[in-house]
Amino acid sequence: MKNYPLWKIFLVFILVSLGVIFAIPSILYQEDTGNWYLDNRLNLGLDLQGGSYLLLEVQTDVLIQEEFENFSDTIRIIARENRIKINNIDQIDEELKIRFDPAENLEDIKNSFLQNYRSVKFNISNNVATISIDQLYKKSIQDSAIKQSLEIVRKRIDESGTKEPLIQRSGSERILLQLPGVKNPERIKDLLGKTAKLNFHMVDDDDSKSLSLNIAPFGKMIVSDINNEELKYLLEKKSRVGGENLIDANASFDPTEGHAVSFRFDTTGAQKFGKATSENIGKRFAVVLDGVVITAPVINSAITGGSGIITGNFTSQEAADLAVLLRAGALPAPLEIVEERSVGPGLGADSIAAGKIASIIGMILVCIFMILIYGSFGVIANISLIANLFIIVSLLGTIGATLTLPGIAGIVLTIGMAVDANVLIFERIKEESFKNKKIYETIKKGFDRALSTILDANITTLIASLLLFVFGSGPIKGFSITLSLGVIASMFTALMLTNLLVHFYVSFTAKKEINL
Amino acid sequence: MFGLNKIIPVNSDYKFLNFRKNFYILSGIAIFLSLILLFFKGLNLGIDFKGGTLIEVSTNNTNISELRDILSPNFNEVSLQEFGDDQTIIIRLQNENNQESIETVNKVKQLINDKVSEFRRSEFVGPTVSSELLWKGFQAVSFALIAILIYIWLRFEWQFGFGAVVALTHDVLFTLGVLSILGIEFSLSTIAAVLTIAGYSINDTVVIFDRVRENLRKYKNIDLIEVFNMSINNTLSRTVMTSITTLLALISLYLFGGEVIKPFALTMIIGVLVGTYSSIFIAVPTLLVFKFRPQDEDDNEN
Asked: How many H helices and E strands in chain A?
């Protein structure tokens, strides 16, 4: 060991020690302790600890459609103000065509319309107006919808009592959720599946003709009852007050009506509600949630206090969930679940146990094989392999990576492949030992000759694994991380640690020649 | 130490290339059959790429046919399969639209709730997501092949890149063919396995090519076939050693790593075997197509 550079010994010693020190928390501890060192461990992925992964898509098509409905309502109002008759309104894909009776002041319609909607394209020719929107406009609708949805989803998940959820935007119209430890994903999906748009509309009980024909006149709409689809209500289209004015909602119990949700309006909401109720005593108002009437009570007296209760044959769970939804607020557009992966705690625990057994047995087999083939040098390779594993685990823990089931597979695979660099070196040393007499020269040449091969071989594996990281999703990313770290760590342990150990072994045993 | 290192003779001198025609024919048939299988039988696409719903349950002493009798009348396309043992059953339901999936899972859970001790996992992949995943997987594999080709081209000469890619394509197609014939589920983790096989196959090939390049410089007067044979023999013990250690780890993963990881481990085992074969019998002989002479090497170095 006379000529072995001291700095190299130190470097190897420090790096390996760091590997061991920072691997300990991941190996020994499962729970957070609050200690920065002990909490420096790798996180278990949802497939190992149990939980739900959900990918939600914001249905922005619905919003665009709503926007077009707003356009045609606005045009009708403007046309009425300007005393121009509309023959018909047609929507073809994303274009609205309005055919007017011949009139001279069609430009006025255009001008007043554009005061309401600035960035809309509006063309008039031959008494036909064409309204269309561009991609930028569409994108801004989508963008604001997803931002609002993200916030509402976050509120709903928080209200549901899920610990440490991960909620983030994914692409242009999706939201990604990771909910560790969720035991009943169905309830979460129910909570997210509802838009929860709440509105109070006045009921028109005088116009029974429109209701029986099932055609709503302008400014009115027909909505069915939540419990009985046959039961229809004719409602004013414009709501008097909506869920956006709610400041609180709670599940409560009404002695006569059963489970209910009590709510409170903010000042504006209370004023609107007070005005609507005081003007319409004796008439009915309808509570409409997501396009169906929950209840439609008669107004007995003006409600000016700004609070009330909603009843409607709820179970206690339904009332509690509705209260959560109302507190969190309405989604701008419906959400659709496009991907779900839920793992129960039982399967996760089984996977961890199986992964541990597979790693340990794989490790033992490889170690025995290396000793059988290379003897003392095999022991050296095995020490490198174990150091390699400690380094992988410590790196995963320090960068806060998530260990998934494919990640465990990556570690087991690394056990098999990590000895490759050692094998390359030993084989080269063996070859050199036939040519050279001097033992240290043999070792040096063996390492030098193996170096470029080791680099070439490992860089190709790194390329494949890097692309897996870029294109893979969820658990597959976990596989590529462990495989990459494994490859990098194996290069270090082979070129530095094995090198040091071989020199140490040769000088310690005072060997004169190598017989591999 | 135990003398086992003599299993692989130190100065082996197998004439691998002399039998190359036989191996061309063998591989040619295998690849042809793989393509036929892929074309006509196809891969057993899992829900990742086909879309649909999957539920894994542990039952209370209920056998698979009882569950099938309960579920079959209620769903159009439902298939049940034992998973590891007869108390663990996987239920697969064909693709509905996104909204229906929630109701489907709920309905399945209601119907078999009293027969089941644990709902171990449930997965749903909608039609848009499954086609995206398929496209991404395809991109990953293609870009990986291109990137590896470029790397080999930069580090070696382009002829070596050609040889490596022939071997690589051979390995990937053959593995896919075996997946098809065995009906192993093709999922995201299988894509990961295929890419890792690509990495492994190249790794193996590169080690031998490294030696080919070295020997081409060293022995300028020896016949090409001899140089190639020599290079394979020089690296033979390493090739065999690394394959064995990798296989040991993979077999352990296959036997003890749990049901979910089995298809991945099996795919990798097939890939490592064929990758080792192709590095020796396909990649190196392919280099004969190009009339390498050591003089070319000198030109390149200047």
From this structure: 15, 19
Contacts of B144 in chain A (CB under 8 A): 463-464, 467-468
How remote is the C-alpha of A274 from its chain's centroid? 42
Mean pLDDT, chain A, as a whole number? 87
pLDDT, tens digit, for every residue of A234-258?
Answer: 999 888 988 888 888 898 888 888 8
B264 contacts A459? CB cut-off 8 A:
no
Query: What part of A 456-515 touches B (C-beta under 8 Å)?
Result: 456-461, 463-465, 467-468, 470-473, 475-476, 479-480, 483
> Is A117's pLDDT higher than 50?
yes
- Does residue B80 share a domain with residue B97? yes
Is the distance from CB of A334 to CB of A195 less than 8 angstroms?
A: yes
Residues B210 and B63 in one domain: no
Q: Any idea what the CATH number is for the domain that residue B106 is in?
A: 3.30.70.3400
Evaluate whether residue B5 is within a structural domain. Answer: no
Q: Give per-10-residue mean pLDDT for chain B (302 aa).
A: 55 84 94 95 90 90 87 85 88 74 81 88 89 87 83 84 89 94 90 86 89 90 90 91 94 93 94 94 89 52 38
Q: What type of residue sits at position A37?
A: Y
| Complete DSSP assignment for A484-498 | HHHHHHHHHIIIIII
Residues 250-309 of A with CB under 8 A from B: none
Each residue of A64-99: pLDDT tens digit? 888 888 888 888 888 888 888 888 888 888 888 888
Q: What are the residue boundaries of the structural domains of chain A, listed by start?
A: 6-48+345-509, 60-138, 198-312
| Domain termination residue (choose one: B77, B108, B125) | B125
Q: Which of A189, A58, A176 is nearest to A473 (CA)?
A: A176
**pLDDT (mean) for A285-314:** 87
Same domain membership, residue B171 and residue B73? no
* Mean pLDDT, residues A141-151 taken together: 91
SS3 state at A444: helix
Chain-centre distance of CA A303, in angstroms? 42
Instruction: Kindly report the CATH class assigned to A60-138.
Output: alpha beta
Do B256 and B233 lie in one domain? The reply is: yes
Domain count across chain B: 2
**Closest chain B residue by Cα to residue A411:** B249
Q: Which domain holds residue B227?
A: 12-45+129-301
Give pLDDT, residue A228: 85
SS3 content of chain B, % helix, strand, coil (to 5): 75, 10, 15
- Which CATH superfamily hosts domain A6-48+345-509? Multidrug efflux transporter AcrB transmembrane domain (1.20.1640.10)
- Quick one: B271 and B202 in the same domain? yes
Listed in sequence order, the residues at least 6 apart from B301 whose beta carbon sits closer than 8 Å to its beta carbon are none
**pTM > 0.90: yes or no:** no
Give the CATH number of domain A198-312; options: 3.30.1360.200, 3.10.410.10, 1.10.3720.10, 3.40.50.1000: 3.30.1360.200
User: Region A419-437: what's the mean pLDDT?
Assistant: 88
Side chain identity, residue A403? L
- What are the chain A neighbours of B206 within 8 Å (beta carbons)? 453, 456-457, 460
Q: Which CATH number goes with the domain that contains B288?
A: 1.20.1640.10
Cα distance between residue A214 and residue B302, in whole Å: 88
Task: Give me the pLDDT at residue A456, please.
Answer: 85
